[in-house]
Amino acid sequence: MEILVCVRRVPDTAENEIELNRAGNDIERDDIVYSVNEWDNYAVEEALQIVAKSGGNVTVVTVGGEDDEEVLRREMAMGANHGVLITDEAFNGSDGRGIATILKAYIQKNKYDLILTGVQAEDGGAQVGGMLASFLDYPFASLVNSIEVLDHNKLKISREIAGGSKEMNEIDLPCVLSIQTGINEPRYVGMRGIRQVASLEIPTYGASDLGLDPNSVGDAAAKVKRTDYFLPALGKGAEILQGSREEIIDSLIGLLKSKGGLK
Amino acid sequence: MPQIFAYIEHKGGAADDSAAELVAAAKKIDPAASPVAVVTGWGADFDALCNALTALYAEVWKVADASLAYPNAELVRKALAKVVPHDSILLIAHDHFGLDLAPGLAIKLDSTFVSDVVSIEGLDGGFLKVVRQEYGGQVSTHVRCDVSSGAVVNIRPGAFKPVESAPVNGKVIDKSSQVGALSAGRRYLETFVAESGDVDISKQAVLVSIGRGIQEKDNVAIAQELADAMGAAVSCSRPVVDAKWLDKSRQVGSSGQTVKPKVYMACGISGSFQHLAGLKGNPFIVAINKNPKAPIFQVADVGIVDDLLEFLPELTGKIRELK
């Protein structure tokens, strides 16, 4: 099975406190730690497990700039066979639909049986997978938390639905699935693994390679645009307990007693 | 002004809470809006459901088809693409079903997709101005959306409080004949209902709940010791289950359990909306997190900015001393 996994490099919320920049038009990106979007990493692991059982290849693709190559190499160190960087000035400022348009153009020039994305990105909203499937007229399923290959043209999948229940579906290939965290345990990648793939060639494609009209993507085509960033209203906000740790523990125990938190 | 539609999710003959929330969201787009409900389904309860929705919506567009008895988003999308006018604004709940349905529907309607809206500032000409959140709610953004050729807008569950109003006494309009035969490359098989685990966290008065901040599996014992000292149970947020440190039955949130404790100790939990959606009954929330900007501090009653791996054992020790 030929599997394409769409990945993104995002600020790592486990490693950074996200703050606004001075102009309020973006987050502060100086000294920020980036990593592969968490959901996408599960998607790559799932693809690797499928080809380990059923044969085939895993290709990881990202739309971005040269900085984004590092996440492709990281996923190649996990075991992905190929990395592809889709990059062009004309792609800057694309909204979700623009990214899906670009990926569709790449996919139509190649042949994949299965296309995986993460359910969502840290700064996105679970858009690209569903849009891409509709552009390609492929079946789609979101929030996928298990995949079983039935035969060369069908999968059995489960989707996560309310309350932790699972919805079982059969889906025809080729299809697009958005992968939920927890579907597997992504393998660890060490520095050594990343060094081993450091010299592998990563092909790049631009708008003209993909036959894309620059006006159909990027800022010019984007119908959804952020105008500014701000900190969410604090609501009532917590009373932050002050003092030494010992003092804080004493006042917390007093509060817990009065609220029925200690038996 | 474009016509506003709301897709109504339902189960067992009852409309989802979002049915009323989407009316509230429509009124934020246009205070004079009279949104139209669109509902798909089949079976004995379906007509009664459509009739019940006329208390909220002046028009209820009913699409009845045997293939829509179970809400398979692949089929519902095809039905809606035939029924909903392309230049309208269609509101859908941003939940496990809306995520499945909406992005692709926007492509089929050739309209703009706006995801996970938490607040609406209004419509200005052909532009809808909304608020979204990024990075697990750590920052918000104003987003300007060109809806002049229609839009599919996903609304975060719980973000819009239903407005109290008298029943509108609307009418049901049957649109079923517009749909025709439906088929899709994805077929629903069955549902496995989540099982409750060794501890039923939905029945606990006090929960010590842990998130990503617990860092590793061995540290779960620190929370269990505190819970034992307090007479509480341990629950958690999604990353702890993803890492297989605790069973799925311990997860609080929209994809886990709904809990209603008196006291909730959120330890190393950032406070994503999916997690908070599982927390009901207005508990007293204590948040312990070393990131002073964690969104959990916005909703907690009391906050402690500290390293929980040091703080929790000291708290446990002090509680034991008092016994």
Query: How large is the radius of gyration of chain A?
Result: 22 Å
How large is the count of helical segments of chain B?
9
CATH hierarchy: architecture of chain A: 3-Layer(aba) Sandwich
Average pLDDT level of chain A? 94
In the sheet with the most strands of chain A, the strands line up as 9-8-7-10-6-1-4-5-11
Question: How far is the N terminus from the C terminus of chain B?
Answer: 66 Å
Using the coordinates shown, work out and report the CATH topology of chain A. Answer: Rossmann fold
Q: How many helical elements of chain A?
A: 7
What proportion of the residues of chain B is helical, as a percent range? 25-40%
Low-confidence stretches of chain A: none
Work out the number of β strands of chain B: 18
Q: Give the percentage of residues in beta strands of chain A.
A: 25-35%
Structural class of chain A: alpha/beta
Sheet/helix structural class of chain B:
alpha/beta
The geometry of chain A reads as globular
C-alpha termini separation of chain A: 57 Å
- The CATH class assignment of chain A is Alpha Beta
What is the level-2 CATH architecture name of the largest domain in chain B? 3-Layer(aba) Sandwich
What is the count of structural domains of chain B?
2
